[in-house]
Amino acid sequence: MTVGMGTAFGVSAIGGSAAAANDDPRGRETVIRLTPKDSIQAALDDGVQSVQLSPGDWKISKPIIARPGASLTGSGQSSRLLASVADLPSVLAIGDGKQCDGFVVSNLVVNANRLAITGIDLNPVGRGSYYEDEPDPMHRLVNLWVYDAIQDNIWYRGDARATVTQLVRSRRAGRHAFHCTNSDSWWMACEGTTTKPGIDSAGFFVGTTNSFFVACKAWYCRDYGYYVRGTRNKFSVCESQDTRSHGWYIEYDKNVFNGCVADTAGFHDVGGTPKTADGFYVVGDNESQALIGCQSFDRLGSPHQRYGFNVPASMVDEGRLVAPTGFGNLAGLVHRRS
After folding, report:
1. What is the average pLDDT across 298-313?
2. Which residues contact 319 (CB under 8 A, 6 or more apart)?
């Protein structure tokens, strides 16, 4: 077959020259390097195991559909997938409502360009037998720059279990920088910002279960830094900074927070007003929530943040708010709600 402007491949090729085939238990034996004149989708549909992108801009008019077991790798910030038509559902679709596992996307830019509703949409379904009879899809998102979705820069849904997201900068999302409604997954060293207020707008919307968030940061968010609406999740050394509403809005129970930070909620640059937002706001009488060694402060000379920790009385009385620290909060460090 041909790709784009006639880059033919039926064997492994890099830059158009033949290369040794890679044995793969799933039957894919090709590697190819594409330029913007070539079609990423055609390469994936032809069974290419490793699609490597040269520097350049790919104008995306319909979602790129990932294929099981393949990888899409760019040349860093010089390789860009750019939405080019209005109301594009997504730039990259992993799963697309079907069974799909083991896809890796790395080292490139995904720019929804204020045209695509979602930048990257992870939506595999079903608990079929995947690679080596694994039950989980196991996708990987590594070293990406994702920008300017109308709603969600990255949406994790369906059955996207065992997904690992690492070193991803997700900027200027309309609603959620990371919209996490899957389960049993990992986010490490990721950061997100948003541009519009809304009922649940957040850098990280956490509707997942039994997942891990490590060294992640939400900042310049027009509502929450983290909206936690899932359970049995673990947050370690994550930060919220400069948010319009609460830095951490924790609605669901049974989560654990270790060494997490809230820095300056109610920040004026993103539409906040003084004494309306807290660093950590824990909803309801959560019986199993624990905040351990967390810090909440307003670093500005003219403070905005109301309380450092606004929590149910039971959290204080039962010793589940452990060693809270902070400074510069207008109404005090800890508010014990009865």
Report:
1. 95
2. none
- Please check the confidence at residue 256 and state whether its pLDDT lies above 50: yes
Q: How many Cα atoms are found within 13 Å in the side-chain-facing hemisphere of 161?
A: 14
- pLDDT tens for residues 26-85? 555 689 999 999 999 999 999 999 999 999 999 999 999 999 999 999 999 999 999 999
| Residues 161, 5: Cα–Cα separation, whole Å | 37
**Helix or strand run (H / E) with residue 197:** none
pLDDT in tens, 83-126: 999 999 999 999 999 999 999 999 999 999 999 999 999 999 87
User: Tens digit of pLDDT for each residue in 191-221?
Assistant: 999 999 999 999 999 999 999 999 999 999 9
For 227-284, what is the HEC assignment?
EECCCCCEEECCEEEEECCCCEEECCCCCEEECCEEEEECCHHHCCCCCCCCCEEECC
132 CB-near residues (< 8 Å, 6+ apart): none
Token duo for residue 225: 């830094």
CATH of 39-267+283-295+311-325, one of 2.40.10.10, 2.160.20.10, 1.10.150.240, 3.40.1180.10: 2.160.20.10
Please tell me the distance from the alpha carbon of residue 173 to that of residue 192, in angstroms, as a whole number.
8
Domain boundaries, the chain: 1-38, 39-267+283-295+311-325
The helix (run of H) or strand (run of E) holding residue 180 is: strand 176-180
